[in-house]
Amino acid sequence: MAAGAVAAGLTAVVAGAVAGPVALAGEGPGATAIVAQLALLTGLACVFGGACGGLLLGQATHRPGLLPPAAWATAAGGLAGVAEIRRRAMGLGLGPFLHTPPGRSALWGSVSLAACCAALTAAGVSSGRGRRLWNAAVSAAAAGAMLTHVLSGHAAEGSGAPLKVAVQWAHMLAGGAWGGGLVALLLAIRGAPDADKAAAARRFSTLAAGALATLAATGVVRTLGEAGNLEALAGTTYGRLLAAKAALLLLLAALGARNRFRHLSVAERDLSGLRRVVALEIAVMLAAFAVTSVLAQARPAREAALRGAPGYFEAASTRPSAECAAASLASGTRNGEHDT
Ligand code: HEM
Asked: Which residue has the CA at smallest separation from atom 39 of ligand 1?
């Protein structure tokens, strides 16, 4: 095949928006990339939130069953998918890819997930205090995997990266503790109501309130970090996706309030209302993660403002993506992206 055809093919792959947070001029992200990202985010959330749930909800009520292995496998599949999509978009073999920032992120993500797997296995075969300690280790390893993911996203770009990364990490941890914790809670409050389950649900409600406040505060800070100012969001896909996330967060807050002020007070006698609303919260949370998976691949609003600026990389431009990948290797920028 002629070199020009290969370059055109690679450019088409990038234009198909499969390369993670590459600046993709006017193109929507590909379905495969979104599914891989969604698997990674929800899998990590369930591993992290499930382990936090194990610590918070207590041994008596928390029997995680198949949740931890299923969540781990989902996260591992998502990580492999995201990495492979980025590698292909950069047109690199595995060896060279592992020397790029997204390749290194995938590598460290795999190390963290391997540690998660070992800790999950140990937690599964231990009991009492040992299980609590291993659950803490699972949470720490999942938090590490989230950090490696954040380090390959928009937060790690440009000025003030360490602060943006810290805020984004807190955002992801809050989303994971709440989202994954909801699934653990739903499993914990199966069966007949009792005082232990009611107490566990009350403890979770306090954690959810903290997560809500953290998500809102860090979400606003990250939005300003990406957009510069709120006017820059108007009329962009990125802005619309953020508005959808804010609406979903409000809905989650309303559902959480309903549980706290209505269903928790009767939880010792009747758990049906609580279970119904928790299931609804999980569905809304899933929608929030789906929107986030698209958002993480969309062009941040501040980049949209740079469109047309000299040197700004357009995926569908005449510049071959393989050339960009090589430049990325040399300069340390991500995903073949060219900074302006
Ligand atoms: C509804 C609950 C929410 C959940 C579960 C959630 C979850 C997440 C996660 C997991 C990420 C990391 C995505 C990635 O790097 O792959 C993220 C990114 C982000 N979130 Fe949220 N979020 C929520 C609400 C919000 C709200 C209300 C805002 C804005 C006010 C917001 C603004 C952002 C921004 C700006 C990013 C960075 C996206 C980028 O990399 O360009 N989030 N969110």
From this structure: 296
